[in-house]
Amino acid sequence: MANQPPKQYPSLELAYSETKELLKIQLQLIAEIDTKASVLLGFAGVILAALFSNLVGGTLPPGTLAQFLLGSGVVCTVMSLICSFLSYRAREHRLIPDPRRLSDRYLDKDPAYTKLKLFDTLIVACEGNQSMIRSKAGFFTAGFWLLFVGILLLGIALLVPVTLSLWHNLCYNLIR
């Protein structure tokens, strides 16, 4: 059996190059998601820092709609921060095999056999990376929408007292 010539795969070179290109695209996509997640993480952090530094005195009366909206906005922003962190956290993505292992195991093998093994490794790497990309993108999307809702709630919470005050003054002036 060892003397048999290796099985020929006419499309191996094409499949190998396309899969290698896909792996390169996946690594770029992972880097892009990480960049977006870090921006989202920073933005949510700045919003929370600004909120906590400006609202230490408690300017809203307890039990009001504005306070409920403010609390809900803070919760959404904190959840966005957590989702952004989960999207951004470092995880090992898969690459082609370690050059040392490649040298130790395949240097004396037939080039077609080595190429086939590398192709199999690329397939496993692409499948693992695809799963990680889905996870990262899911956490990023959730974080983005939570931050959007949080900012919306915070904006409404900050506008409610101003609107009520203006309404109160308008009604007071109409009655007088």
Number of strands: 0
Order of helices and strands: HHHH
Helical residue percent? over 70%
N- and C-termini, Cα separation: 105 Å
Helix segment count?
Answer: 4
C-alpha geometry = rod-shaped
Largest sheet: none
- Return residue spans where pLDDT drops below 50 for at least 5 consecutive residues: none
Percent strand: under 5%
Helix-strand makeup class? mainly alpha
Q: Give the overall pLDDT as a whole number.
A: 83
Count of all domains: 1
Rounded to the nearest angstrom, the radius of gyration is 28 Å
SSE diagram, text form:
Blueprint: H1 12-54, H2 65-88, H3 99-106, H4 111-175
Helix pairs in contact: 1-2, 1-4, 2-4
If you had to describe this structure to a student in words, what would you say it looks like?
- The chain has 176 residues and is an all-alpha fold.
- The protein has one domain (12-175).
- It has helices spanning 12-54, 65-88, 99-106, 111-175.
- Helix 1 packs antiparallel against helix 2, helix 1 runs parallel beside helix 4 (111-175) and helix 2 runs antiparallel to helix 4.
- The relative contact order is 0.17.
